[in-house]
Write a structure and sequence with these properties.
Layout lengths: L3 E8 L3 H11 L5 E8 L2 H11 L3 E5 L8 H10 L5 E5 L4 H10 L3 E4 L5 H13 L14 H13 L6 H6 L4 H4 L1 H24 L6 H13 L4 H13 L7 H29 L3
Length: 273
């Protein structure tokens, strides 16, 4: 099969992470990448105009820009180019906020897996933004959360890109496993909501650890875990009181981040660098 050619922009200032990413990209046997790279946001903004990449891999913490401002600046310069955020465990919450603002995915640099990288790139290119991803400040926090998770969960698997790559999300490739995972995730969130209301503490680590191990065994990535979170939200009874829905959303996000952490630990153990 002829390789698909992808123009990719990498904005990362850590030489070790750059080496690992390049090494992973060389293992993508069905994709030929034309890679442009820089370690500064300012230079990246210039390359966006000159190279017109198909996808951008972005580290949020750079010498000339840090945190969510890095993503927002790049998004404003390239609203039509999918951005995949590169993050460490210590800034996973920031990466999730970037998803809410319009990032297409995020990858844990500490446990980079070729299959997960490839899936993320495929999905990012497939899910190009239509009208930009800027956040309307007049929209309430709750409406913004609903809009963001709906955007995150969107995927058109009948697109040319999907057909070319043969990419399938976890919920499409193993729907029975996905549904069971959603149910277990819901249990964890319900426990977290109950703890918050009753001011109790339920030990959830064994449940989330086991859930992460199962997700890791099927090569699940951050996007798949977010799909689980999205499905859990969408499965809420429509007559659930607004207050409980907001608490469920908040606690669900925390459970999501904890589950992500366990998944990172799984990849660290089974796919050491």
């Amino acid at each position: 099969m002829e390789k698909v050619k992808i123009r990719m922009l990498l904005i990362e200032d850590n030489p070790d992470d750059v080496f690992l990413l390049k090494d992973a990209l060389q293992m993508l046997d069905d994709m030929e990448t034309d890679l442009f790279e820089t370690d500064r946001l300012a230079a990246g903004l210039i390359l966006v105009k000159e190279a017109r990449p198909d996808v951008i891999l972005l580290d949020l913490n750079l010498p000339d820009s840090r945190g969510l401002d890095t993503f927002v600046s790049l998004l404003e310069a390239a609203p039509d180019i999918p951005i995949v955020v590169l993050t460490g465990m210590d800034v996973s919450d920031m990466a999730f906020k970037a998803l809410q603002f319009g990032a297409h995915d995020f990858l844990f640099k500490t446990s980079l897996d070729t299959d997960v990288l490839l899936k993320s790139i495929r999905f990012a290119i497939e899910r190009r933004p239509v009208n930009g991803n800027r956040v309307d400040p007049s929209i309430s926090v709750k409406e913004r959360e609903i809009n963001s998770v709906e955007r995150i969960s969107y995927s058109s698997h009948s697109s040319i890109t999907a057909e070319t790559f043969g990419v399938r999300s976890l919920k499409d490739s193993v729907p029975g496993f996905f549904d069971a995972t959603v149910q277990r995730f819901q249990i964890a969130v319900e426990r977290a909501v109950e703890d918050r209301i009753l001011r109790t503490t339920t030990k959830q680590e064994p449940l989330l650890q086991n859930l992460a191990d199962q997700l890791g065994s099927v090569k699940a990535g951050p996007r798949d875990v977010i799909d689980v979170y999205v499905q859990a939200l969408q499965s809420l009874d429509p007559y659930t009181p607004i207050e409980k829905t907001e608490v469920y959303t908040e606690e669900g996000k925390l459970v999501l981040l904890e589950l992500m952490g366990h998944l990172v630990a799984f990849y660290r153990n089974y796919y050491p660098q």
